[in-house]
């Protein structure tokens, strides 16, 4: 069921007509009673009750709001025109907000793509774009939005690992833009039948579950240490290679292969060691 516009009239002009009608009803009632004419008061009362019934057709529409009309249970259309309006008094009216709204999900405990338990939460920005679907396709569209958004968040979280060990593979922690877009698409697919448009969806909380948080922290620290060591060794090898090349080009000292190996070993110890080295002064000759 799609939204269609309902027929309504501007309220101010019709209000003026009703006021004139009430004045006429009062004139007929008072004039007939004064002239002792029974037809006058009766006509005045009938007109008064008719105008009172017609006045039930007045309603107000605020900005970014829609009024869903039903006639004896049948959908008759939606009025989005702002201000005071008038329509069929038999219409039952229901207000549906078209404003942008948001909510933050609770912290959900799910398993990521690697099977690790994680905690995740998200904020969803949404608005109603079809009042008919929001009213008649689901029982309570606000509750529907909340439940389906959390279900989509769970589904999305299982599609990615928390942290990727392959630099090119997407993960929840490293590919925020891609993950948020996936989350929005997943929620929109579920909420489209309720006449709801998802403006934005993004993760607001992401962490390992408490039972594995410490182990995962140690794992991350170990990975960082290994990466740092690899960088240090790479730089040290380049420096040793440059030192040997410069010594050879300038002819500072001639080293055989055994002493080159000893020099390389000493330089690597100096460059890769965590503690500062203590120099040893050799007062003897270069050769034994």
UniProtKB/TrEMBL annotation:
All residue ranges annotated as the Band domain in the record: 56-220
Keywords per UniProt: Membrane, Transmembrane, Transmembrane helix
Transmembrane segment boundaries: 12-30, 42-59
Subcellular location: Membrane
SMART domains hit by this protein: PHB
SUPFAM superfamilies with a match to the protein in the record: Band 7/SPFH domain
Membrane topology category: Single-pass membrane protein
Entry protein name: SPFH domain-containing protein
Classification of source organism: Bacteria, Pseudomonadati, Pseudomonadota, Gammaproteobacteria, Lysobacterales
């Amino acid at each position: 069921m799609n939204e269609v516009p309902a027929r309504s009239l501007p309220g101010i002009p019709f209000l003026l007509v009703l006021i004139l009608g009430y004045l006429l009803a009062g004139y007929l009632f008072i004039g007939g009673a004064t002239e002792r004419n029974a037809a006058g008061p009766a006509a005045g009362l009938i007109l008064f009750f008719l105008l009172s019934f017609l006045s039930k057709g007045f309603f107000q529409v605020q900005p970014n709001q829609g009024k869903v009309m039903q006639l004896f249970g049948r959908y008759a259309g939606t009025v989005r025109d702002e201000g005071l309006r008038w329509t069929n008094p038999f219409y039952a009216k229901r207000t549906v907000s078209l404003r942008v709204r948001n909510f933050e999900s609770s912290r959900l405990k799910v398993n990521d793509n690697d099977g690790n338990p994680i905690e995740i939460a998200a904020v969803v920005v949404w608005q109603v774009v079809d009042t008919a679907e929001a009213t008649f396709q689901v029982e309570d569209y606000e509750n529907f939005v909340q439940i389906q958004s959390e279900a989509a968040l769970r589904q999305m979280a299982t599609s990615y690992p928390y942290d990727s060990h392959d630099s090119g593979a997407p993960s929840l922690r490293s590919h925020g833009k891609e993950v948020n877009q996936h989350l929005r698409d997943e929620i929109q697919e579920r909420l489209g039948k309720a006449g709801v448009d998802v403006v934005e969806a993004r993760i607001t909380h992401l962490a390992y579950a408490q039972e594995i948080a410490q182990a995962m922290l140690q794992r991350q620290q170990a990975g960082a240490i290994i990466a740092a060591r690899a960088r240090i060794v790479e730089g040290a090898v380049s420096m040793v290679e440059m030192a040997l090349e410069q010594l050879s080009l300038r002819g500072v000292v001639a080293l055989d292969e055994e002493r080159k190996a000893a020099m390389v070993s000493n330089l690597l110890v100096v460059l890769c060691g965590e503690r500062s080295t203590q120099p040893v002064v050799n007062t003897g000759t270069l050769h034994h």
